[in-house]
Amino acid sequence: MSTRSQSLSRRSFGKLAAAAAAAAGGVTLGACSSGGGTASPNAPLRIMAINHVWTHTISKRLDEFEDLIGRRVSISMLTADQLANSYNVKLNASATDVDVMMVRALQEQLIFAHNGWLTDLSDRVRDDAFRWDDFQEAPRERSATAGKVLSVPVVTERPALYYRKDLVADLGGPPRTLDALMDQSLELADRRNNFFGYVGRGQRNGSVSQWSSFLYSFGGDFTVDGRSAIGTPEAIAAYEFYGRLLERTGPPGVTNMSLEQAMPIFAQGKAAFYIDADAIYTNFLDPGVSTVQDTVGFAPFPAGPAGSRPHNIPSWSLAINEFSLLRDDAWAFIRWASSPEMVAALQSEGIPGARESAWSDPATLGAFPGELAESMRISTENGLGHDRPDVLQVSRARDIVGRPLVAGILGESVPPVARDADAEFADFLVRDNRHRES
Fold it and tell me: What is the mean pLDDT of the chain?
């Protein structure tokens, strides 16, 4: 019988919280080495995961996996903050009571790799039976750090253009270019009556990941050859466009808005357009929180000067704790949970995976609205595998990169702010790389 706790016990969480508070704040940059030891035959395989629809769905199938390996499975589901704090405490102590780790390849994998906390999966994924080449190129590339495959993607995410079908019917349909998005947003905005052309994230740190697709579609990137690129003409153009879009057509107070504040504005019928993660689409179909369930449409990210270049990222992946005493069983779980058959089954239930074979099978997309399924399929083909800077200190980098975004939204001149942020980011990258090499 599986042990499946959705949170730590109060006593256990209290101990972790106290240990986290005693740690020197933030993730430690000191590496650890794994110890030896043998697990008891009765020891469960322990999985730590995000409280997410993927985790809930896979947990319902654990009896099948337990029969496969002849061992009990214990899965703990935590919030993202709880998960990060728990990893920091446990892995700094070289704890062996975590085997499979659900991680964000773009958020913590680099620093976990730097600290020596993740098992190298390179040889395992290259087993012909696993079909590593069946995984989409962008998520597959993000699973490797310093040439080593350290995680396997199980949930992917792209941006989607959410729009009001009833409002664009006389405008030729949803905008296919960023210029058309600007024009239609300006035309439909009626801000004096509390209706907005476009709503999106404007908060300094939280907006960076969604702005990334604007940056790429203007031909820019966060870095080029390891150096800051946020002061390039392409980046400045992307900053100015996004700032102008929200300044002229967005809601008041948008510089304080991240996902949690922006999404309800569209869901309550107060905006014509909204770009954010395709994973949140169910919020607009739920009559309990949405007034637009009958009028919401879905479209691919509009094309900019460099075309439509959205991100296509592994939002959650599976890794193995380097200190685990059950690494073979942990890998057996990852193989099972990310197999072509399992990915296809979960995707047919509305959980987008990372395998090409699943995306090429129309049957797996039946759970999604037709327009959204086509939008997602297009973005998997031309998406880039990152939506934030590839650095150890991700949050600090987002703060720097997000500063010109806020300036644009406030109607300030973007170029001088972007040049200043570019210099700060360049200095940050030097320091970050020194940490990485230490």
Answer: 90
